[in-house]
C-alpha cells in the first residue's frame, strides 16, 4: 500500500508541476523572451538528520555573475505539494528575489514523518536557508520567510530561532496552537479531523502526532497537560521574547471566519510584537483569502506581502510602513479600514444587559450553530451568506436567547465581543456555545460571531462566573435590526462535554450582572 501511495504522490506532483510549467512557458512567448523568464529548477535539500526535502528554486532571469539578491524561503502548507507557491515565486523572482519553496517533512515526496512544526521542522527551515546561501545568489543579510497555514506557523517559529530571518509574511497561520484548536478548553472537532485526515492521506504522521490526535479526539483529559505542552512547543507565542530580541519585520494576515486558526490568537500575538509589524484581516475561511494569489491571479494579501518584503528586505520606499499598520476589510462591500493598533479597533464598547435568567437542557442542538468548516465562511466571503437561524423558532428548552432593542442606525461591529455571565450546572462538566446574531425584521438571524466554552471539575448546583471572548470579526448590522445572543450546548464544529441529563442555568446576579460587550466602530 505504501509503495502504491508513493507512485500516486509522484504522479500527482509531476502532473501539477508539468501543468504549471507548461502554463509558464506559454505565458513566456515569444520564444525570443524565454531566456528572460525566471529560471526554475527542482532540487533535493538535506534537512535535519539528512532527511530529504523536495524543493524548487526560482532565481531572477539574467542575473550577472557575483550579483546578490534577497531570498524568500517558503515552507509548504499542510498536505500541499511543493509546487504550491510556484506562481508567487515567479512573481517574486521577476522583481529580483531568489525563492526557495520546499515540501515540509513528512508530506508528499519529502522524507521523514510529520512533526507538526516541531523542532525538526524549525531545523529544516534553517538548513534550507543554509542551502540557499550556498547554492544560489542569495544575500545572507536579506533573508525572508513566508507561507500559508502550516508554512506560516513554521516561518514564525523559525524567526524566533534563526536571527538571519529579517522579514516574515505569515498568512492564515497560527501563533498559539492551543488557542486555535482548543479555545475555550473545547476541542475544535471538524478542524482537528480535517487536519488529521489530510495528514494521513498525503503524509506520514509520526507516533507523537498519532497519539496526540488520538488523545485529543477521544477527550482524554488525563493527557490534557501533555497535549497543551505539545502545542505550546509549536506556538510562536511561546518564543515571543526571542522574536522580539531578533526583531524581524512581521506581517500577519488571516480571515475573520478561519475555522482552523481563528483570528483572535493572531491579534493577541500582534499586539505583543516589538519590531516592525502589520496585521490584516479579511472575509473568508482558512487560506481562502490567499487562494487566488496561489493561482497567479490578482490578490490583495500577496500584493501586500510583496510590498512588505520590498520595504524590509530591499529598503524600497513604497509607503507600506506609513500606512496604518492594522488593516481590516469588513464582511461587506466596504473597503479597507486602517487603525493604529489592535486595541483601537474595539475601543468603543457597548454593553447589552442579559437580565433574564435562562435555563437550558444540554445535549440537544437547538439549530443555532457556527456552520461547516471550510464551507460556511467561504459562502460568507463571496456571497455575504453566513449561517442563519430563525431566532423566534429556536426551542427555548435547549437555547437561551436575549435580544437587544432595534437600533436606529447601523451598528458596525469591529473586534472582539465578550460574554460575561454566571453559570450554574447540574453536572461537574459541560459545554456551551455562545452566538451573536444580526436579527432582521422577520426574525432571521445572521451569524455575526460565536465561540465555545467547556468546564470541568465544577460543583453541581454552585454558580461560577464566565468571561468568554467570541471570535473577532468586522460585521455591519443594518439600521432597524437587533442583536441577539443565543447560547446552546451542541455544535457540530466542536466536541461537547455535557453528561446525560445535564442542565445549565444562566443568571444575572445583582452583584455581578451578566452582559455581552460588543465593540462598535466609532463614527
Automatic annotation (TrEMBL):
- The UniProt record lists the Xaa-Pro dipeptidyl-peptidase C-terminal domain at 306-516
Q: Which GO terms describe its molecular function?
A: hydrolase activity
From which residue to which does the signal peptide run?
1-34
Tell me which InterPro entries the record gives: AB_hydrolase_fold (IPR029058), CocE/Ser_esterase (IPR005674), FrsA_esterase (IPR050261), Galactose-bd-like_sf (IPR008979), TAT_signal (IPR006311), Xaa-Pro-like_dom (IPR000383), Xaa-Pro_dipept_C (IPR013736)
| Keyword tags | Hydrolase, Signal
Q: Which family does it belong to?
A: Belongs to the AB hydrolase superfamily.
Entries under NCBIfam families matching the protein: CocE_NonD
Question: What PANTHER family does the record tag this protein with?
Answer: DIENELACTONE HYDROLASE DOMAIN-CONTAINING PROTEIN-RELATED, POLYKETIDE TRANSFERASE AF380
Protein's name in the database: CocE/NonD family hydrolase
What species is this protein from? Streptomyces solicathayae
